[in-house]
Amino acid sequence: MSYRASFRVWRGDDSGGGLQDVTVEVNEGEVVLDVIHRIQATQLPDLAVRWNCKAGKCGSCSAEINGRPKLMCMTRMNTFAEGETVTVTPLRTFPVVRDLVTDVSYNYEKARQIPAFAPPEGLAPGTYRMQQVDVGRSQEFRKCIECFLCQDVCHVIRDHDDNKKSFAGPRFLMRAAELSMHPLDARTDRAELARDGQGIGLCNITKCCTDVCPEHIKITDNAIIPMKERVVDRKYDPLVWLGSKIRRRP
Amino acid sequence: MTALERHSYDVVVIGAGGSGLRAAIEAHEHGLRTAIVCKSLFGKAHTVMAEGGIAASMGNVNPNDSWQVHFRDTMRGGKFLNNPRMAELHAKEAPDRVWELETYGALFDRTPEGKISQRNFGGHEYPRLAHVGDRTGLELIRTLQQKIVSLQQEDLAEHGDLDARIRVFAELTITDLLKDGDAVAGAFGYHRESGEFVLFEAPAVILATGGIGKSFKVTSNSWEYTGDGHALALRAGATLINMEFVQFHPTGMVWPPSVKGILVTESVRGDGGVLRNSEGKRFMFDYVPEVFRDQYAKTEDEGDRWYTDPDNNKRPPELLPRDEVARAINSEVKAGRGSPHGGVFLDVSTRLSAADIIRKLPSMHHQFKELADVDITAQPMEVGPTCHYVMGGVEVDADTEAAIVPGLFAVGEVSGGMHGSNRLGGNSLSDLLVFGRRAGAGAAAYLESLGDRRPTVTDDAVDAAAATAMAPFSPGATGAAGADAAAENPYTVHADLQQSMNDLVGIIRRESEMTEALERLQVLRRRASRVVVDGGRRYNPGWHLALDLRNMLDVAECVARAALERTESRGGHTREDHPGMDPEWRRVNLVCRKAADGGIELHHQPSLAIDPLLLALFERSELEKYLTAEELAVLADEQPVPGQAASSSAAVDEPEGRA
Question: In chain A, is it the N or the C terminus that has fewer CB atoms within a 10 Å radius of its CB?
Fold first, then answer.
């Protein structure tokens, strides 16, 4: 069942690089990460690749395979024809460290800008009561393994580096939605923060993030659109507008 | 002297999984300036792999549960070799640690009353595992990660700097601990990204590095699990206990070959999945050992009734502790009754509706569909044992997690004692939190005792650590092994180590094979000293592996030596040539330490006595299966009468404040 496959692997660092051709053995049932490991063990021992669990649970081995953002550990080799060349390149949205490894610190910075869960005051540990149907909405978003494929594919930052400053990306808009939908989160300004701090207005719902999510989270439909609606409700709802005017009177 | 980046902290936590993060949170709460070092990116630690849940006797699903019942189950699971004080603290404190996670933002699955839901698991008498589908570990790591961020946000408000009092160093590997006399003075390592060296000067170091599975070929563990903390502790003069006890999880994937070993959660069985051999027989009924005979169903009908009526029926033997199930599967395959790819069948498709399977076991459904083309809602899975967890680890004080080296602490999988000879599923995540918190507090107390007398790091020690780390770049520098011999590839040496451990010190052990393993390890050590790596220092996985090899070899030798010495079978240590469990061996802990010549020294140490008040939680007839005649004779005089003890003793208090 083994065959020799043609791989093209990007090698280089922040000063430049290019695709290197490699011919490598492939066995039954293998995934792209297995083949990358074989290349490392037998041909290019210093080939840089980031990975951990090899089971689709940690979100470390993100790369672009034939131009599509994917987890290397969950991409079966039998999805390619035997004669097909498989090209593996680093995530394009983030700066290259070396070979297939990129600097994803942008994501950790954005994570630190979201105000944490605010526990309800006066509710002792052990007395939290929530219904499954209510936690279910946020639980969908907490399936996120932080592979950052959604961030990589999002054209707001993929093609426009300057937007990185003002745009948090789908992963963190979803985090805002998750907190906003948490049954016991005490903050009431999540929508405003998504508008002013995370640049939710820049998202024009092309759903690329949903397409690449290995956890099949409906990022656009279930997180970003409801969040956009909350922003709009607050800012443009005529009743809310009238209420705010009336309340402001002396 | 060596060019390097220097940091000074009160405490350095090595490892950013559940135990490391919980320890760091506690250290921060005690006002310590805290560094968290992760070998990978922040939030990728092995804790994410935990699937089934976190064990805590909250009693949300069955109100009969209490810490006493949890303690009993834990001791039975560990075949009474557990550090009894750790098992007691763990059972008592686990509920508070779970409830605390909700205040950090965790969202567990719920009961109809809105409480945290709890599920059945092997060896646990009642439904006890708080869970989020089958991705509980991910919830735990994300919750703690986000709690760390929230602490940083508080520090930003107060000090103007997110990193003022707790900082995360991602993709940084520690290669050596540095000491001042007897005491810990710091840690030395390298940034994976740049290859540049880093020195942490710190009077307290908390090891939270996880396990050793990467020394074995078939394992559920990720690349990080190279026994770093175990080896750092050994080289710093600390002791390891119970290293012969390695848990082989009964259900790993067996096909396709590239995913062999990937975990299949025990929740599949907890939620109704059954094990069958190639003849279609539920073989586990033939493998209930004497010590558990009274606690498990004798017929399939009774086992099936238990899922809906647990008060009047006994649980099916698929839910025996992991060591029993793993051995049974091994025997079935050996007897020629295995599945086509050398495992057995685990079937949940005939037991639950497709919708229930997808709701309760979403990542198993996903994993089999994507990696093996198997639809678990319609077909059985093929499963077999996989190296999963090491019960052995750094010998620590139960209350503070302090090792014998002043300033050194260990917590989670890298520590030893809590789980005895075999860990129950679900007891790991609770272990991380209970003892993570205690280690953070232990470090704070140690710092207070030091006052202004802070240990210092010498330049010589730093230079030596740097030279060791650079050795794989300079062939022949390590000299003695023979510079003229052929250079070795780190990947090949690693593969040979994994194969040796798998074949010779695996699930079933024999004296001759372990003797051979020790010989092979000596050869591998010599080969490892000749490893040469290509390329430069920037993100060079060949170099990283070359440095990790040193740790794996130290730890593998501890496992093999202790396994050869213990001439009985107990929990995660099965000797074909000594199949029985021997009460005399229950009183012995095997302790490893580093000898002057760099090898591993082994000695016997009496295990801790179990408090009579804790022993009173068991029927005498059960204790007779584990204790020596001598221990039982003493017990007859001292043992309080169960029931009377409840009012007179702290150890058997009623469960506290159950909400």
Answer: C
Q: Give the CA-trace dihedral at B296, B301, B307, B311, to 10 degrees.
A: -60
Tell me the chain A residues in contact with residue B256 when contact means C-beta distances shorter than 8 Å. Answer: 28-30
**Distance to chain A for B164, nearest Cα, Å:** 14
Q: Which two tokens stand for residue B280?
A: 């279609």
Answer whether A97 touches B (CB < 8 Å): yes
Inter-residue contact B206 to B232 (CB < 8 Å): no
Do B78 and B423 touch, CB atoms closer than 8 A? yes
A183-205 burial by CB neighbour count: b if 16+ within 10 A, else e?
Answer: bbbeeeebbebbbebbbbebbee
Chain A (182-241) residues lying within 8 Å, Cβ to Cβ, of chain B: 182, 185
Which among A31, A52, A185 has the least Cβ separation from residue B223?
A52
Integer Cα distance of B523 and B525 in angstroms: 5
CB hemisphere CA count around B651 (13 angstroms): 20
Active site residue B110: no
> Is B491 in contact with A41 (Cβ distance < 8 A)?
yes
The count of other CB atoms within 10 Å of the CB of residue A28 is 13
B 593-652 → A contacts, CB under 8 A:
none
pLDDT digits (tens, 9 = 90+) for A186-198: 999 999 999 999 9
- Residues of chain B by 3-state class (helix, strand, coil), percent to 5: 40, 15, 40
* Cα–Cα distance measured from residue B138 to residue B382, given in angstroms and rounded to the nearest whole number: 25
**Cβ-Cβ contacts under 8 Å, B255 against chain A:** 29
How far away is chain A from the Cα of B256, in angstroms, using its nearest Cα? 5
| DSSP single-letter state for residue B575 | B
Is the minimum CB–CB distance between A112 and chain B shorter than 8 Å?
Answer: yes
C-alpha dihedral over B431, B436, B437, B442, to 10 degrees?
A: 120
- Nearest CA among B542, B458, B410, B553 for reference residue B188: B458
Cβ atoms within 10 Å of B44's Cβ, excluding its own: 29
User: Per-residue pLDDT tens for A151-191?
Assistant: 999 999 999 999 999 999 999 999 999 999 999 999 999 99
Question: To which H or E segment does residue B129 belong?
Answer: strand B129-130
Show the DSSP H helices in B55-159 as ranges: 67-77, 84-104, 136-159
- In contact, B383 and B375? CB cutoff 8 Å: no
Between helices B427-450 and B136-159, what is the axis angle to 10°?
30
Task: Reply yes or no on whether the pLDDT at B53 is more than 50.
Answer: yes
User: Does residue A41 sit at the B interface (CB-CB below 8 Å)?
Assistant: yes
- Residue B493: name the closest of B516, B519, B520, B524 by CA: B524
Cβ under 8 Å to B: A residues 114-153: 115-117, 119, 124-132, 135, 138-139, 142-146
Q: A with B: how many residue pairs have Cβ under 8 Å apart?
A: 179
Catalytic residue among B249, B327, B438, B544: B249
Q: Which of A53, A98, A127 sits opposite B48 (nearest CB)?
A: A53
Q: Which two tokens stand for residue B200?
A: 């942490």
List B residues 540-569 in contact with A (Cβ-Cβ < 8 A).
540-543
Residue from B46, B76, B192, B269 carrying the catalytic annotation? B269
Helix, strand or coil for residue B325? helix
Active-site residue flag, B537:
no
Structure-block tokens of residue A10:
């990007």
Please tell me which residue of chain B has the smallest CA distance to A30. B258
Q: ipTM greater than 0.90, yes or no?
A: yes
CB contact under 8 A, B110 and A48: no
Q: Give how far Cα B549 sits from Cα of B267, B491, B494, B532, Å.
A: 34, 9, 7, 12
Contact assessment for residue B212 and residue B227, using Cβ atoms and an 8 Å cutoff:
yes
For B384-415, write each residue's pLDDT tens digit.
999 999 999 999 999 999 999 999 999 999 99
